[in-house]
Amino acid sequence: MFTWRRIEERDFPLLRSWLEQAHVRRWWNHETSAEAVARDFGPAARGEEPSEDLLAFLDGRPVGLVQRSRLCDYPAYLAELAAVVPVPDGAMTIDYLIGAPEDTGRGIGTAMLRSVVARTWTEHPAAPCVLVPVVAAHRASWRALERVGLRRVGTGELEPDNPVDDRTHYLYRVDRPGSGG
User: Fold this and answer.
1) CA–CA gap between residue 91 and residue 93 (Å, rounded)
2) Sheet of 168-175: strands edge to edge?
3) C-alpha closest to that of 141 among 98, 85, 86, 181
4) Which residues are CB-contacts of 63 (< 8 A; sequence separation ≥ 6)?
5) Domain boundaries, the chain
6) Domain at 2-175, CATH from 3.40.190.10, 3.90.550.10, 3.40.630.10, 3.40.630.30
7) 102, 134, 154, 181: which could join 142 in a potential S-S bond, CB 3.0 to 4.6 Å?
């Protein structure tokens, strides 16, 4: 059973330790100094940025992070995605990670994604869909999205998080249940 809460500054050491893990570092390519974590996660933690940085707890234990946002709050990113696939008004996006290596490959990520997508429909009643770009090389990530019910709706060139990756991304989408999308 997953529970969720927004990150707080007291979570920064945990986020930093997760970002330093090889399986996270490979795909997130994030600076891991205490200053960088505070700089990059602080605005969301303080409510100064429109994104929601959510800690996922499985049976009370923190296991992952989901960054959820409305694409309209990030016009440049919205334009980048809209150059590849149609993006409906109110569309949401997520980015995610499982923190500890021992929690990978056990279905926790898939269950976490299923939970956050379900919560999105309740917490964002105007959202018609969730649209998620994934670098094509990150098979485990896009396979988890497929297991949750997202479908690949496009392939395009986007700036990768990690400069070692090719620009090719798959775009995945799930529509609000009952919307006929």
Assistant:
1) 7
2) 2-6, 52-58, 61-70, 92-98, 129-135, 168-175, 151-157
3) 98
4) 56, 57, 98, 99, 100, 103, 108, 112
5) 2-175
6) 3.40.630.30
7) 134
Question: What single letter denotes the amino acid at residue 19?
Answer: L
Distance in angstroms (rounded) separating the CA atoms of residues 124 and 72 = 13
Q: Give the angle subtended at the CA of 99 by the CAs of 136 and 147, to the nearest 5°.
A: 45
CA pair distance 166, 162, nearest whole angstrom: 9
Q: What is the pLDDT of residues 124-172, one digit of tens each?
A: 999 999 999 999 999 999 999 999 999 999 999 998 887 888 899 999 9
Q: What are the distances in angstroms from CA 80 to CA 49, 51, 86, 171?
A: 20, 18, 11, 12
pLDDT at 180 over 80: no
DSSP 73: G
* Separation of alpha carbons 89 and 11, rounded Å: 32
In this model, does residue 51 exceed pLDDT 80? Answer: yes
Query: What is the rounded average pLDDT of the residues 80-109?
Result: 95
Q: In the numeric block, which tokens belong to residue 17?
A: 């330790």
